[in-house]
Amino acid sequence: MLELSFDRHHSKPPFPDIPPSELEIWYENNGGAGAFGCIQDGRHWMLLPEVASFCFDTTSREVKAFPYPLVGEDQVRDTFLRCVLPIAVQVQGLEVLHASAVRHPRGAVAFCAVSGTGKSTIAYGLSRRGYQLQADDALAFEATEHQRPRVIPLPFRMNLRPSSASFFRMDGSAEAEEEMWAESMPLGAIFVLKRESGSCHDGLINCLRLSPNEAFAAILPHAYCFGLKEIERKRRMLQQYLRAAMHVPTFELHFPEGLERLPYVLDTIEQAIQPRSHDETDDRNDGRME
Questions:
Q1: Which domain holds residue 79?
Q2: H runs (alpha helix) in the chain
Q3: Tens digit of pLDDT for each residue in 116-144?
Q4: Residue 56 CB neighbour total at 10 angstroms
Q5: Burial 138-158 (b: 16+ CB within 10 A, else e)
Q6: Are residues 131 and 20 in the same domain?
Q7: Do 67 and 99 belong to one domain?
Q8: Cross-strand pairs, 187
Q9: What domain count does the chain have?
Q10: How far apart are CA 152 and CA 134, in angstroms?
């Protein structure tokens, strides 16, 4: 696993001075630039404004952080876990979904969506029903040619929004503990979350099993990647997501706004991940794991 080291011997975090056309920019949901990246002399750089710059390459086990003055190491590490580590391991060959996940006897169950949809809330809600947490915000996997895709553990901290923490009666002052599983496990199912504004047809929750082609189109927008300029890396990335779409049951889950509906959302997910009996027909709207 990649290790984070600190270098505070700079009055300002170093970052290569390159033409704007060579910058990679990651945008927030509100359209603002959240991070900047570039490649110089074989090393990858990321700059998280007002936090730190980070440097890593394609083979080293070290990611070096250059914090801004007065920024504490815990804040830098939290930024590393959420923003930099997923990109760094993708650069080194894994694929990473913007997803939270829980552990199921048949494999990890992933929930991918744009920020603020409810990935962490749903994963944490299932953890209260006995499922162990596997990931929050970043789920790494590898999909080799003749094997079912496997989840590769990354360290994470569960991060709930204040409204969700209040719903679960969590102490807002409690600091999130860092977690990490020691072993890999199969990727058992993927849910692409779609939270509907308004009543969502009077509160109806709809879980649809996707075809492989639909699954590929649905999960690819939630992929972490440093950039798409390196042709060979882009080819391998698309290939691994195609394998995941072919071999992992993928569902599109539509649900209404409002935490009061969360128990019913969790019920729907639990029903979907129940294995089908051998005498059931293969209906793609059946909404269950194989």
A1: 1-92
A2: 73-79, 85-91, 119-127, 162-167, 200-203, 212-219, 231-247, 262-272
A3: 999 999 999 999 999 999 999 999 999 98
A4: 25
A5: bbbbbbeeeeebbbbbbbbeb
A6: no
A7: no
A8: 108
A9: 2
A10: 10
